Amino acid sequence: MKKVKYPLSWSKDNFSIKIFCSIPNIATGILVKASDALFIVDPGDGILRDLNKELKPDQILKVSDIFVTHGHHDHVGGVWSLLTYLRVMNKITPLTIHFPKGCIEIVHIYNAFIKVYGADLPYKIKLNEIKNSKPFSTNKVKVIAFPVIHKEYIFDKKTTRQIPSLGFKFTYEKKNICYGGDTAYCSELVKQAKGADLAIIEAGHEEDIPDGIHMTIKEAKSIGETAKEYFLVHVPQK
Ligand SMILES: [Zn+2]
Ligand SMILES: [Zn+2]
Question: Counting beta carbons within 10 angstroms of the beta carbon of residue 152, is it exposed (0 to 12), middle (13 to 18) or buried (19 or more)?
Fold first, then answer.
């Protein structure tokens, strides 16, 4: 497939999404706007640079929620700098980090951050460790977090293990965006993407034979095409 050109943007009424970047093993970075509400999804490396191109610093301080699909570095690499930036710029409103249960990367980044800056932090950080698919709302946006199938290699480079991984479906004023995160072909994503106003589907596996970690272009397209519109992301860039 051809190189995906970032950013990718989509908007309907007061609901929009901008994907600054989504390159496997490098970085992801996504901004969701629902009227005045601002969310960041998968803040990989470079998120501060991209946010500062898009928003004024006082707007960045209004970000209320961070959504993390899983703990791989290309999805969480910017969390530390984002939390620190918000401290330096004197954010006062609370921030919630939503992440899958068992995602130790977020727990450890948070614990280290609190250890370093906890005594001198102008804003409150809430952790929402997601344990099930029960929908919840934040800033008038309904969120469904659904489990997906995503693995990583252990040190021997041959054996894989499933890691805590989610996709998110955001609904605002009857429009919805389904973001699958990193996933192999999975029935839960098939269900959530169907009929969505926008589906963002990863196609991170280059070969035609599925590897259980990422989807092939063919698999990703077959899911994307069931939505009203779709983007293929996380395609290896060569
Ligand atoms: Zn990834
Ligand atoms: Zn991953």
Answer: middle
